[in-house]
Design a protein that fits this description.
EC number (chains A, B): 1.3.1.104
GO molecular function (chains A, B): enoyl-[acyl-carrier-protein] reductase (NADPH) activity
Largest sheet of chain A: 7 strands, mixed
CATH topology of the largest domain in chain A: Quinone Oxidoreductase, Chain A, domain 1
Family (chains A, B): Belongs to the zinc-containing alcohol dehydrogenase family. Quinone oxidoreductase subfamily.
Keywords (chains A, B): Fatty acid biosynthesis, Fatty acid metabolism, Lipid biosynthesis, Lipid metabolism, Mitochondrion, NADP, Oxidoreductase, Transit peptide
Shape of chain A: globular
Radius of gyration of chain A: 22 Å
Oligomer: homodimer
Largest interface: A-B, 28 and 28 residues
CATH class of the largest domain in chain A: Alpha Beta
Catalytic activity (chains A, B): a 2,3-saturated acyl-[ACP] + NADP(+) = a (2E)-enoyl-[ACP] + NADPH + H(+)
Chain lengths: ~400, ~400
Amino acid sequence: MSLAATGSKDATRATALVYSTYGRPTEVLKVLKHTLEPPTEDSVQVQFLASPINPADINQIEGVYPLKPPMTTGLYASSASTSSDERPPVAVGGNEGVAVVTKVGPKAGHVFKVGDWVVMGSAGLGTWRSHGNFRAKDLTKVRTVEKMNEGGDSSDLDVIQLATLTVNPCTAYRMLRDFRTLSPGDFIIQNGANSGVGEAVIQLAKPLGVKTINIIRNRPGHEEVAERLKSLGATHILTDDQLGKLETKELVKSWVQKGEVKLGFNCVGGKPTTEMARLLSKNGHLITYGAMSRQPLILPASLQIFKNVHASGFWLSAWNEQHSSEERQEMIDRVLESMKQGQFAEVNCTRNQWSIVSADVSALEGRLLEAIKKATASGFGKQVFVME
Amino acid sequence: MSLAATGSKDATRATALVYSTYGRPTEVLKVLKHTLEPPTEDSVQVQFLASPINPADINQIEGVYPLKPPMTTGLYASSASTSSDERPPVAVGGNEGVAVVTKVGPKAGHVFKVGDWVVMGSAGLGTWRSHGNFRAKDLTKVRTVEKMNEGGDSSDLDVIQLATLTVNPCTAYRMLRDFRTLSPGDFIIQNGANSGVGEAVIQLAKPLGVKTINIIRNRPGHEEVAERLKSLGATHILTDDQLGKLETKELVKSWVQKGEVKLGFNCVGGKPTTEMARLLSKNGHLITYGAMSRQPLILPASLQIFKNVHASGFWLSAWNEQHSSEERQEMIDRVLESMKQGQFAEVNCTRNQWSIVSADVSALEGRLLEAIKKATASGFGKQVFVME
């Protein structure tokens, strides 16, 4: 069953994938057909172009993620004919996406023009929707309409790359930048190297002249994964079963020579991460941004006391919250610039069409929930909604 | 059997507790009776007043500590009559102690005067001896002869407090200072709170207005330990069996109110330290300086990612190596000032007399090794050599 609400005749007809209670995404998500009033004051209205389904989005709907967007009745137009029983407070799913500005509120004209492309400046805004009204300060430009008219900036980056820009590449960018000053010839080491963040790390490190030691899992097909990472610019590859061995320590030493392994990026946890931490140089810094193994980080005291290895976490949502929209814009500009220099590879994903003019809400809902189902199962790869 | 060496008639007759191979301290340590030539150039000669036996000293002799002082034949005077077979290269045990300057080399007079009291500016100098020659830059003043003639500075600190100043109180001082800016009303939490460092933390935090949450072991006599820590200025006490319980979390919350637990000091490791880390406030920093449980540090990824808890190690020997003698002097001055303000409690220890004019070397050796034996066994408390 789909929810429905209607609005005034100036309003935009829109669809959104929403939930009113936490639970299994395929069970609690519904398409809400609704109308959007024109943006007021310093807000803009956007039409989404593409929005990915990320693991954190799923955890958020399950209610197990620390960021919980407030549920509101704001999506229902005041003139809605449905009764309040049919209008439960909802949150729109999704945290990441790229959109085009379609209407500009009276005080937002100095920031955005119709036609500008934007990404989300913070988490919890809800990106699984055809259209939405957002405060200008919550959005960050990725292409200006002027530049696009001149032939386009970021012209070698497609809509999927832009839609998946604000989580993985921005996490990689900040981790490379905020903990140590990296110079050409320095090394970083990372596990989960073929994750979205891992691939972004490789591609952002390359134009900096920073060398990468990349740990992947030794399972069938790992040679192809290694080839792909090398094609992105990975300097060295290790499989997880090589960790903890004396010859691996010697191998890394031969790669690093007089350089330093200044940073380690960890999205795995458990014993293999301990072994990765041992490969850091003196004064190295291990940054944890995930825990795929669901195991904690285990650090020998000697590594911390005598080798002065530090351990910190990184969460982009917290960074975004603590920094201004100008700082976020600067980050996006620089990531885009690095992406262009690194010639970022195409994002491997399945495109799931979201017909924004679709009249058949239940057919749309069926298609969107199919994409959610694939995103929560394994073996289907990354799923992205593409709004057309 | 004791080793012996003799020198010129200007030389000072000295004894030192030395080892020529790594092993069990009571088996490898010997008294070396020897002579010291007058100090040359920018060196001074000192007579030790008191030198403690620390756990790291024992580990060093066992060969399991990362700092290994080089073994040399420097202690044997050139005129030694013994054959080279009887003069194996040796290192003098001990890393901490207080000494009085007895002779000043030609270029050291602008730094030290005869009668000044000094402590060691770095590790590995060998403090278990009656006399020694040291470079001026390796020593730090704790009392000047001028001030002593005026009635004494640091006059409320006794020789044992000064002898045990450079390891525990200096570690506590740096950990309180180097990781977060602490203001009155801020909290720190620590385990092993009745260790030498733990007690120093309490006493150095007090004059800063910094409140301390102190974790001790729940074993017979823990009430007396708690009373002692409270008499030193401890704000709150927890026993380790309270860790990980919901009511303890609530209790700490009620203590801290709107304050912040900015720092945690860990000398234990393992699961109890994980539970202590959970009591840190957002952005808190856990400093590991020991691992009494011989367990590693275990940190949940969520604590690092979402709560932004950092983990670092601290090792005073590395700090001393990386900082100038002026910076070490400043630290000692400030620690002494804080100690006086906090009215540091007497150090609980057993004083083991080291007769510096003793002619009976084997009797001396017996007494010194008895102290070493007590220091390596449990239940005898802290052992200090007092040279008289």
